[in-house]
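Table S2 (text version). Query chain:
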Amino acid sequence: MKGVRELKQRHTYSFLNATERGIGRKLHEKELEIENINNKNKELVDRIKQASMEIQSWHYRVKYNESVINVLKNNLKQAMAQGAMHGKEGCGDSEVDDAASHTNVNHIVDGSRNLTPTMKQTSCRACKVHEVSVLLLPCRHLCLCKDCEGFIEICPICKAMKTVSVQVYMC
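Corresponding structure-token output:
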């Protein structure tokens, strides 16, 4: 009787050990699966972030291009209206007038008393019509008029993302 009980206990013990090892292996396999799934999840989150940033970049580019298109349409309408009023073909009277609308020529006297023209950009980089009056930050370019500033999210000079703009009053 004692031998049968002892044999039964050994058999139960070996059965429990085999079951425990099998369950331990399965548990380890499931933990590896969970780790692999978590790694794949991290990769997908990184890809989503990257895609989101690219989408945002393209969105800003689209907005900028739309604003440039609107400004160019307005310039074309103005040029056509001016051409109709003057009864001339073309957009401007001459290349000199065209250049003068984009620059302001100042003369500076240097040490040898020669007059040297210096060019300063005073017309808006977007519409090329109005005078610049808006400073973009963080790049600190003074390059837009107040009308164009609301439509443009990217600096037309350095292509940096505009975070803040400041109205500048020049006397």
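Notes on Table S2: The radius of gyration is 36 Å. Confidence is low (pLDDT under 50) at residues 88-119.
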